[in-house]
Specification:
The structure is a homotetramer of 339-residue chains. With 339 residues, chain A is an alpha/beta fold. Helices cover 33% and strands 18% of the residues of chain A. Chain A has 2 domains: 63 residues, Phospho-2-dehydro-3-deoxyheptonate aldolase, domain 1 (Alpha-Beta Plaits, 2-Layer Sandwich), CATH 3.30.70.1140; 252 residues, Aldolase class I (TIM Barrel).
C-alpha cells in the first residue's frame, strides 16, 4: 500500500501513521516529496483490508493499494493457461474452442431434445439450458426446477452432450450437481459468496458469470472464493456490463478477454446472447469474441424464439446457429483454435 | 405492450403478429402510421414477459412495455405512504425520521455496546451492526457470525435499541431472525430471489438495499418478490449506484427519493456511508437526503475508525455523529418530520 | 508519480526506469517491496504527463499519479471559499444563496419578460434563458440567437435581474458577452478548450457546467483552463451525470457538492432541471442541494411548459416555483445562508 | 409518438391531449386499455421535439417516441452501405479494410516521416497524426498546430499516404482543410454542433468520433448535422465509452459495429487505442473489430512510446504494428475484406 499524506501534514501525524503501519505488521518506508510525503507500507497487503482504515488517521489524504488482491487466480501463481476438463476428452482453455448452446429455459422434452440434436449437429459440444431461472419479476416463469434437470439429463443421454445449468440457491447445490456436468453461477450471483464457497468444495467445473457491474478485479476475487476452497476448475464468463447505452441489453466488454488473459490463467468464455439481447447481433459478437482470443462461447438457441418463455428476442434459431458456426470455424482457425 | 412494426413490413406480417397477440390472450389494436404501423396489445401485460418474444417475429422492429411490471409495490394498489412498524412504538414512513446507526462489523462486546449507548444518546433509534459480512475478498474478515448476533442482542438489551443486521444466505434466515428486529438484504443480494422469497414468508420488517447497478424498476420488482410472498413490511434503501466517477465509492442517487415516492408507498431509507465511502462526505449527504424527503437514514459509526476491520474510512466517530444529528434535526423540522 | 514495477522485473529494467526518471527532471526513490519494487518520482508532476509514458518501458506494470493535476482551482492555492461578484452587490459563494431561473429557450418578448417578473417576485436574483441552443437534432429549434439576446437584455431592463446565457461557439463569445452578465458553458462544451481559453480572457463571470461523463477531476481541469488564462470568476455547475438509470434524464451527483467543497475554493451551483428531466422531481432536488451546501441553483421555469419549444417536461410553472422558493428559504436558513 | 395516460386520467384530460395533438399537426388515435389509455400521435415526429412537452399536461404519464429521429443517416433513405472515397482510388465502406495509423501527436519531422514510411510498409493506407490536441490539462502539450500540419503534409509527400488529423475549433476548419485529406472530429466535440455544421459545408471526408457518453442514437444525430448541411462523406468511429470499469481507459463497445450496420449506411471505423489505453490490448481488439465487421481501424503508433508527448502507453511500436497487420489480413479475408 502507498499512504499519501496531506500537504502540510506535520511530523507527528507522519510518526503516528508509521507507528500504526508497524503495529499492523508492515514496514513503513517514507518518501519525502516536494509538496507532500508518501509512505510505502512494505509487506503482503492481501487480505489486510484494515490497512485501508489508515485513511481515517489525521494527516492522511488517501491510501492506494499496489498489489492485486487475488492470488490463486493470478498468473503469478500459474503463468501458463489452465486447461480445464469439463467432460471426458473435452477441455476448455486449450486449442479447442468450446461452444455451449441451447435454450434459455428448459420448456419441454421435445424442445430440449430437439435442440440438443440440432446444436450438436452444428458443432456445439456442450448443451446449455436453465431449470432454475432467476427472473426480475416474481410473476414470470421461474423454471421447471428438478423436472427441468431431468429433461436435461435425458437430452444428454440422447445427444451425448454434457450439460451446463445454473444453480441459484446454496440449498440446491447438491441437487443440481446430481445432474449437471458444469455448474453455472449467474451474473446476479457473482458475489453470492455463500454459493461460491459451496461450489468451491465441489468436484465439478464452474462457469462463473461476471455481474452487470462487476469490475475485472472483483470478478477475479469471486473466482478466488471458489479456488480458495479447493475447486480449481473455474471458467470466467463475460456477458455484458451495464452502461448508459440502451441499443443493446448490456454492453459486451470484449476487451475483458485480453485483460483477463494478462491477469489470470483461467479460461474465458463469452456469452453474446445476454450481452446484446438481440439475436441479430449475436453472430458478429461470436466472431469478434473468438478473434479476441476467448476459449469458448455460450449461446442461446431456441427452435421457435417467438414462443420462448424467456429471452426469445436474443435466441438464434437452429439454422441461424448452424450458419454462424461454419463461419466461426474459419475465424477460430486463424487464432490457432479448432471447433 | 406496444409492438412497433418495421417500415415496409407487409400485411401478412401484421396479420401474423395480430394472430399471435390473440393467442396469448390479448386484444390487438392497430394504429396505421405514416411510415409504419404500431400495434397495441390490450390486456394486463404484467408477468407475461412472453409478449416480449414477439420481437422475434418477421416484420417486428421492437416491443415496448407500457405498464409498470410491479403491482403490490405500486401506488395504484395503495396510494398512501405505508408506515411500517419496526419495533413497539417505532414506525418508519410516518412523521418520525428514523436514524439507524452503528459499526459496519460487530467486532467485540465493548465496541458494540459502547457504540449502542453513544448512538442512542445522539438520537439514533435503531442499532446497526454486521455479523455476516459479504466481503469482496475471501481473505478479508468475514464477520463474527452467530457470536456477532449474540453481541448485538446484548447491545439491544443494554441500550434498548432494536437491531438491524444483514442476512446473506437463505440457510441463515432463521438464525438471523432469532436475533434481529429488522432483516437487512445487502446490495449484492438485491436479486438473490431465493433469499427474497424466504424473507417474504417472515413476520419481520425487511431493509432491502438497492444493488450497485439496479434500476429503480428492478428495485421495485425485488421488493415485489417479498411483498408477493406475504410480508408487507419492506423498506427500500438507496446506497449509491456504480458510475464512472471515482471521487466517491459510489454515486448516491438522491433523486431516487422523489422517484420512489411517486411510484411506491414503501418507505425510503438512505445509506450515505456506502454511497460516498468517505466519512467527511456523510453529514452533508444526510442533510440532503432528509431535505429530499427520505424516511430514514442508516449510518456507519465506529468508536475508532482507524482500527475498524471493515469500512473504516467511511465511518463517523460518535462525536461527529452527535454533531451531525443536531443539525439534522433542524432540517427534519423543515420537512415536517421529527427525529 | 509512483511507478509500480512488475513482479520479477530485473535490476536492469529498474536502472533504466530510474535513468529515464532523472532525464525527465525528477528524483527517483526506490522502495524494495516483498514481491515487487515501487519507485517514487519526486518532483512536481503536474503538466508532465510524459511521465505516464514510462508505462511503455520494459518491466513497468503501471504508473500511478499522486498529485492533483490542477493548481489554481485547488484549495492549496486559496484555502478560503471564493465569493464571486456576478452583478453589482450580488455575489455567489458567500452567505447568499443565489437562484437563477427562467426558460430553457427565449421564445418571445412576452414569454421572457413575463417570466423575468415572476421569477423575481418569487425570489430569484438572476434570469436564465437560452438564445443559442445546442440541440441533439439538427431539425430541432436552434434558438433565437442574437434576437434572443436582445430580448434577454430587454427583460433585464424591465426586471432589473442580471442575465445568464449560454455561448456555444468561440466565434460568438464577443457577441454573447455584449449582452450577458454571466457566460454559461454547457455540458457538451465542458472540454471545448478553445472556448474555455477565450472565456479565460474575458472579464465576466463564467458558469461552467459539468459534462455528462466528466469526472470531478476533469471538471476542475476545465475550470483550470479558464483560471489559467486570467479569469478567476468561475462557478462550477453540477447538472447530472449519465448512468444506467433511465427513471431520470441524468443522475444528479449531489455528493459532488461536498467533494468539490473539499477540493476547490470555487462556488458550486446545482441544476436540478437537466439532472432529473421531470418538473415533479425538481423541488425536492433543490432542497437537497441546498442542504448539501451548494452556493446556488439554476432552475428552468416556463409560463406554459406544455407549449415550450424545448425542455417542457422539466420546466416548473411560475406558481410551482414560487411555492418551492418559500420552502427553500427555510432550508437555506438552517445552512446559514439566506435567499 | 405514443402518449401514455395515467391510470385514472379522466375524459377531459384525454380530450385536452387529443386537442393539443391536433394543434401540433398530428392525428390522435386512442387505444382504450384495461387500466389506462394510450394515444398514438400519427405523423412524422422527427424534429418536433415539442411533442415531448405534452408530458407536462394533466393526466399524461409519459411520452414515448417511436420513430428514429435521424433521416439522412438511416438505411430507410439509403439501404445499401455507402462507400466513401477518402483519396483517389481509396474508399472506406467497400471490400477494402482501411487501416489508419500514426502517432497521437506530431512531434518532429523525423518522428512523423519515419512513422509514415513504417506504417505504409506494414500495410496502412492512411497516416494519422495530431497537430491540434485537446488535452484535459492546460499545462500539457497542446500540439504543434500549423507547424504540425506542415509536417503531416511533408510526410504525405514522402510516403504517398493521405492524412487524417483533428480539428477542434470552428475557426481552424479552413486551416486544417488546407492540409488534411480527412478531417477528424474528436470524442469531446461529437456534440460541438457549430463545428459539425461547418464540416457539413466542406468537400472533405469526415471521421466523426463517438463521445465517451454518446448513445448510438445521439451519435447518428451528430452525423445527421453534417449530412444535413450537404456533406455525405461521414465515417463513424467508435473509440470506447466511459463505464465503471477501470482496467481499460474506456470500454470498447464493439457491438456498436453490428448495431450501426443495422441502422445506418455510413461506414464504421474502430479506434482500439483510445478505447483500451494499453498497447498490449490493441492487437486483439483490432482482430475482434474486423471480425465484427468494421470497415476500418485507426491505430496509434509511435517509434518510441516511452518518450511520446501524449498517449505513450497506448501506442504500438512499428514492429508490433507490422506483426499485428499480418494476422489482421487473415481475419479480414474471412470477412471477405482485404487489407
Amino acid at each position: 500500500m502507498i499512504i499519501v499524506m496531506q500537504t502540510g501534514a506535520g511530523k507527528e501525524a507522519l510518526a503516528e501513521v508509521k507507528k500504526r503501519i508497524k503495529e499492523l505488521g508492515y514496514k513503513p518506508h517514507v518518501i519525502h516529496g516536494t509538496t507532500r510525503n508518501v509512505i510505502g507500507a512494505i509487506g503482503d497487503e492481501r487480505g489486510k483490508s484494515v490497512l485501508q482504515s489508515l485513511e481515517s488517521m489525521p494527516g492522511v489524504e488517501s491510501v492506494v493499494p499496489i498489489l492485486k488482491p487475488y492470488k490463486l487466480a493470478s498468473k503469478e501463481v500459474r503463468p501458463e493457461p489452465s486447461a480445464i476438463e469439463i467432460a471426458p476428452g473435452l477441455s476448455v482453455g486449450g486449442d479447442k474452442l468450446v461452444v455451449m448452446a441451447g435454450p434459455c429455459s428448459v420448456e419441454s422434452e421435445e424442445q430440449i431434445v430437439e435442440t440438443a440434436h440440432k446444436v450438436k449437429a452444428a458443432g456445439a459440444t456442450v448443451l446449455r439450458g436453465g431449470a432454475f431461472k432467476p427472473r426480475t419479476s416474481p410473476y414470470s416463469f421461474q423454471g421447471m426446477e428438478e423436472d427441468g434437470l431431468k429433461l436435461l439429463a435425458l437430452a444428454r443421454e440422447e445427444s451425448g452432450l454434457p450439460i451446463v445449468t445454473e444453480v441459484v440457491n446454496p440449498r440446491d447445490v447438491d441437487l443440481v450437481a446430481k445432474y449437471a456436468d458444469i455448474m453455472q453461477v449467474g451474473a446476479r450471483n457473482v458475489q453470492n459468496f455463500a454459493l461460491l464457497k459451496m461450489l468451491g468444495q465441489l468436484d465439478k467445473p464452474i462457469l462463473l458469470k461476471r455481474g452487470m457491474a462487476t469490475t475485472i478485479q472483483e470478478f477475479l476475487m469471486s473466482a478466488e472464493y471458489i479456488l480458495s476452497e479447493g475447486n480449481q476448475r473455474v471458467m470466467l464468463c463475460e456477458r455484458g456490463i451495464r452502461t448508459f447505452e440502451t441499443a443493446t441489453r448490456n454492453t459486451l466488454d470484449i476487451s475483458a478477454v485480453p485483460v483477463l488473459k494478462e491477469q489470470t490463467h483461467l479460461p474465458v468464455i463469452i456469452d453474446p446472447s445476454h450481452a446484446t439481447g438481440h439475436a441479430s447481433l449475436v453472430p458478429s459478437m461470436c466472431y469478434a469474441s473468438v478473434a479476441a482470443g476467448c476459449d469458448g462461447l455460450i449461446v442461446e438457441i431456441h427452435p421457435t424464439p417467438e414462443t420462448a418463455t424467456s429471452d426469445g428476442p436474443q435466441s438464434l434459431r437452429p439454422e441461424e446457429f448452424a450458419a454462424m458456426m461454419q463461419k466461426l470455424a474459419e475465424f477460430a482457425k486463424v487464432t490457432g483454435k479448432k471447433l
